[in-house]
Each structure stands twice: as structure tokens, then as C-alpha cells.
Amino acid sequence: xxxxxxxxxxxxxxxxxxxxxxxxxxxxxxxxxxxxxxxxxxxxxxxxxxxxxxxxxxxxxxxxxxxxxxxxxxxxxxxxxxxxxxxxxxxxxxxxxxxxxxxxxxxxxxxxxxxxxxxxxxxxxxxxxxxxxxxxxxxxxxxxxxxxxxxxxxxxxxxxxxxxxxxxxxxxxxxxxxxxxxxxxxxxxxxxxxxxxxxxxxxxxxxxxxxxxxxxxxxxxxxxxxxxxxxxxxxxxxxxxxxxxxxxxxxxxxxxxxxxxxxxxxxxxxxxxxxxxxxxxxxxxxxxxxxxxxxxxxxxxxxxxxxxxxxxxxxxxxxxxxxxxxxxxxxxxxxxxxxxxxxxxxxxxxxxxxxxxxxxxxxxxxxxxxxxxxxx
Length: 376
Known about the structure:
Elements: H1 2-10, H2 14-37, E1 38-44, E2 53-59, E3 67-77, H3 79-85, E4 102-110, E5 123-127, E6 136-140, E7 144-146, H4 153-157, H5 160-173, E8 181-184, H6 190-201, E9 205-210, H7 213-221, E10 226-229, H8 235-242, E11 248-253, H9 260-266, E12 267-275, H10 288-295, E13 298-301, H11 309-322, E14 339-344, H12 348-356, E15 363-367
Parallel strand pairs: 8-9, 8-11, 9-10, 11-12, 12-13, 14-15
Antiparallel strand pairs: 1-2, 3-4, 3-6, 3-15, 4-5, 5-7
Helix pairs in contact: 1-2, 5-6, 8-9
């Protein structure tokens, strides 16, 4: 391009050559600078259906103090993204409005005051409050984890949000102990497939509910001791039969209202009921509190996205120490991110439709750029 400008300038009078060359060169530098400060990202025109999503040009973020700029190679879709798209789950204050709660890629740049744990070129995966469905994202340095050896960016992108959520539900909130039994609803989801494996890692007995034979079989393959189709009669009695009438010690519940009676029935005395979603509604018509009192139930509501940076850093640290090594180990329990499909970032609308139709078993991953281990 510079050579073309020079050739055109030579055709002018000598006095004008330098003037025009300077103007054109300045313009080219401005265009290049603008291109370097922009990126491609998922854009939501207005709240609504999947067709309101597209990929467009937006400003590239700059890492603030204690943050890292991540060059994103793969990201993923979560249920929270579909709710945000509908206008039902806004991003936390100060977070990016761009969808995406996780990403995997390379460290591109360090912000001020970083502690020195990461350097440009490091291959990492990130837990995010938003902004992951883009070519670059700024992330708190303490919310990064190294990508396990031999794992692709696409596999790594399937880990942060759902595996950290599952770990939080089981251990930080649910207090799961070795030998206990845990009932995991939506067993075919990203969180469900992660929680099943993490339960086995903890020496617990996972029981799963799901809505298709394929998802039930996948749960068993991942270590569930039993798996029940919630569409085929009440699961509560089946759970009680499986536990010899005792019930389960912990329930991971992303459903809410439509399951509350069965949950109360099959939860053991002094059991922990961890509520983290309301796919089946939030309005209960019935005597739930009597059941809570009679069984001394611990009803625990929790979310992850709006938690403090310190809480997330503690969660990332605990997961990195206790669970992450098992993604590459050859021990009795080897953890595996379950991926349903990988689609290009440009097909974001298709990815959202798939999730809302409950067609996926495991994660829907978005490919942002080609895997390139030799370039930054």
C-alpha cells in the first residue's frame, strides 16, 4: 500500500509530492490504528429472539489495572446468554454488555499492576461476567486458568462457566461429602455433565434427571448411579427406591417451581437443596415451608455471575487445585468437558436456538479463530 502511494505521488510536481505523500501516509496510519482498535463481536440489536443476534465491529477492550487482554480462539453459549438476549438477565454493573461468560485463548497484553503470573502467549481459559463472544476480552488476572496440556481451545472453552458453577454448587454451597448422594437435574446440560463427574471425583453418588434416552445414557456413561426421565412419571419415588427410602443428601436444582414437590419428597432429613435456576418457574402454589420445617431442609439459593471478584478468585483457585489436574490424569476419575457441537461465531443465532430447544447434551462451543499455537 505504501509503495502504491509513492508511485502516485511521483506523478505530481515535486513540491506537491511531499505534501500529498504526508497526507496519504497519515490517513493510512489512522486507518491502521482504527483497525487495530476494533474487533468482531456478537452484537444484540435489541432484546428478543435469536435472529436479533449478529456479528459486527465494536471497540476492542483495553485491560485495566490487574486485568489481562485475552485473544479469544473459542468461547461458548450458556443459558444465561439466552436470558440476557431476551432482556431478562442484564450484565452486572461494570461488566461488558457483549454476551459470553467464558473464553479460551492466548494472553495478548497485560494491564498495569498485574502480579506476574501470566505473560503474553500463555494459553489460558477465563471465567467472565460478560464479553466472551468476541475476538478479544479483558479479564481479571485471578479469573484465568491454564489450559491443560494437550487440550484444544475449543475443549477449554467448554470448561470455565459450567465447571466452576458445578464446583461451586457442590462444594462452596452444597457442602457435598464423600459417600453422600446428590440429585442433579438437567443432567444433559453443561452444568449437569460437569456436576456428575465432579460428584464421582468427590466420592459421592450422583443421580440424574433428564428428558431424553440419549441424555440419560450419557449421564450413566459419566458415572451416574441412576438416571430417570422426568417426562415418564414422577422421579421422586424412583429416587427414594434408589436410596432405600432415605432420599438424597443434596439436590442441584435449576428447575424450581415445577419440581418443588418432588424435590421436597425425595430430599433426606436435613438435606441441602441448592437452587440455581428457575427453568420451571419461580411461583410456588403449595405448602413448601411445612416441608422445609418438617425435614429441617436447608434451602440455598445461589448465582455465580454477580458474585464479587474475590469470591470468583477463590473459586478459580480451589477448582484449579482440586479439579483441574484431573483433566489430564490417568487416575480412577478423569474429567472430560462434554461438547455437543462447535459452530462458528457467525452462527450465534443457530447456537442460541439449539440451546433453547434443549437439543444439546453438553456445551455449545463457538469457534472464533483458527487454532494457531505458534502465533500470539
